[in-house]
Design brief:
This protein is an alpha/beta fold. Among the domains are: 33-106, membrane protein fhac (Ubiquitin-like (UB roll)), CATH 3.10.20; 138-252, Cell division protein FtsQ/DivIB (Rossmann fold), CATH 3.40.50. The protein has five helices and 13 strands. The strands form two sheets. A ten-stranded mixed beta sheet has the order 6-5-4-7-8-9-10-11-12-13, covered by helices on one side. A three-stranded mixed beta sheet has the order 1-3-2. Helix 2 runs antiparallel to helix 3 (74-82) and helix 4 runs parallel beside helix 5.
Length: 272
């Protein structure tokens, strides 16, 4: 191929490339691919959504869809839909000639997290503002960076108390790195910083025996001792409620057996 012909072909290729780039812009300016010529007529949404408000979703998408098939900004649609309550993940695409498809994965709540957020089954935190929080969720709290640790101990503790017919209602890891929980019967348990799982195992193993041997209500248990637990008891009130006031204290001198239960508090060792 001689030089002049090669240059002609190169110029032609550049001209074609520029035309391909410029044509959509010119077409848009002149209305050739405007919304009135290529409207989006159908919004296709993921079926089976349980929590996302589909009517609200349509309101959010409608202004974008009005731009038409070629002018719509899919990234902007996706960003706006992602801000809707209960949306965990969203994918938006357009299908020729007039369909806008929105695929949504919803958050599935696992627990409450603090006062104003929920924790999904995927381990993601999301706000409760603007949503109806399901009842019966456990209450978890702790530093955001420790979500995995809190969930792990909650799952372990939940299994520990099942044999005694109890469940964990609340588990907290505070700023001092100290653990505490509340059982569904109202018992408050201070676990402390060290050996949280081991301490809970020992306590859960003897708790059914403790409750069976006393007519009083167990209010609190402090597990931060080397050789035992500090237990606070109270008289039951009307209809099984707490009568109020300070209860007598008792202790378990060994972790692994209910023998040695005394009142008042016998020194169970140093607190850790």
């Amino acid at each position: 191929m001689n030089g002049p012909l090669r240059r002609i072909l190169q110029v032609g290729a550049w001209a074609l490339a520029l035309a391909v780039v410029a044509l959509p812009v010119v077409a848009l300016v002149n209305g050739w691919i405007g919304a009135e010529r290529w409207p989006l007529r159908t919004l296709r949404v993921t079926e089976g959504l349980e929590r996302v408000d589909v009517a609200r979703l349509r309101q959010v998408v409608a202004p974008h869809a009005a731009s038409g098939f070629f002018a719509i900004r899919l990234d902007q649609v996706q960003a706006d839909v992602a801000r809707l309550p209960w949306v965990e993940r969203v994918e938006v695409r357009k299908l020729w000639p007039d369909v806008l498809e929105v695929r949504i994965s919803e958050h599935r709540p696992f627990a409450r997290w603090g006062a104003d957020r929920l924790l999904s089954e995927q381990g993601r935190l999301f706000p409760v503002e603007g949503i109806e929080v399901p009842e019966g969720l456990p209450e978890l709290d702790g530093p955001d960076a420790r979500v995995a640790d809190v969930v792990a101990l909650y799952n372990q503790a939940r299994e520990m108390f099942v044999p005694g017919g109890l469940s964990v209602r609340r588990l907290v890891l505070d700023r001092r790195d100290s653990w505490s929980l509340v059982l569904d019967n109202g018992i408050e348990v201070t676990i402390g910083k060290q050996e949280a799982r081991l301490r809970l195992q020992r306590f859960a193993r003897v708790l059914p025996q403790l409750l069976a041997r006393s007519a009083q209500v167990l209010r609190r248990a402090d597990l931060r001792y080397t050789n035992g637990f500090a237990l606070e008891w109270g008289e039951p009130g009307p209809a099984g409620g707490d009568a109020g006031g300070g209860g007598a204290l008792a202790s378990l001198t060994r972790h692994d057996a209910p023998t040695g239960l005394r009142s008042p508090l016998v020194n169970p060792g140093s607190r850790t």
